Amino acid sequence: MFQWGVVYRFVSHQLKEILDMRTEKHFYFALLLSIKFFFMSATISTYLYISMMSDISWGGFLADSSTYIWAVAAVTLFIFVGKQVIQIHMKIFSKIDEQFQKLINWYSLRYYKKHKKDAPLLTNISKYSMKMFGWWTKLSPRRRKMLLITIVLCYGMYFIGIQFVDDLAHWIDVVYPEV
């Protein structure tokens, strides 16, 4: 007999483990990249599933329900391998960060040994990073959190909305035939 309580505990445990990683440095960027990965993987798996099942006599209706298959595939991937994929992306971002830091340090030391002053590249990086992200540092922690949650939700909704582009184009053609 199937027990829903076991499934609920498993899903809540997986989501709790993912949310426990929020304090790590590259979590939000890794989460955004992982969402893209899950949606692309769900698209590929939906396509493969429908192409395999279309040859079966009772599988002809599956093309109409591709959105539901896609959503189930994306959620299933997120629940089963979400933590691992996010950790891989965080490690990739950490490695990129580390290598970029080594490059900057190597360049600044060489420039300082030769010219006995700080490299102008460091000043430019500092100036342009403040121009681009200075507004972020002025936000309160509560507003930063709200903005991050909004960005993640909008990013996810964008990829969900992409699934309905053909339906939207058809609706526009029906409602506005003169356009």
Structure write-up:
The protein is mainly α. It has one domain (4-175). Helices cover 81% and strands 0% of the residues. It is built from 6 helices and no strands. It has helices spanning 4-19, 27-53, 66-115, 120-138, 141-162, 165-175.
Topology:
Elements: H1 4-19, H2 27-53, H3 66-115, H4 120-138, H5 141-162, H6 165-175
Q: Main beta sheet: strand number and arrangement?
A: none
Q: What is the H-and-E element order?
A: HHHHHH
Radius of gyration: 23 Å
Mean pLDDT metric: 88
Number of strands: 0
Please work out how many helical segments DSSP would assign: 6
Provide the β-strand percentage band. under 5%
In the predicted model, the low-confidence regions spanning at least 5 consecutive residues are: none
Q: Quote the distance from N terminus to C terminus.
A: 56 Å
Which structural class matches the secondary elements? mainly alpha
Total of domains: 1
Residue share in helix = over 70%
How does the overall form come out from the CA principal axes?
elongated
Briefly summarize what is shown:
The chain contains six helices and no strands.
Give a quick set of tags describing it.
179 residues, mainly alpha
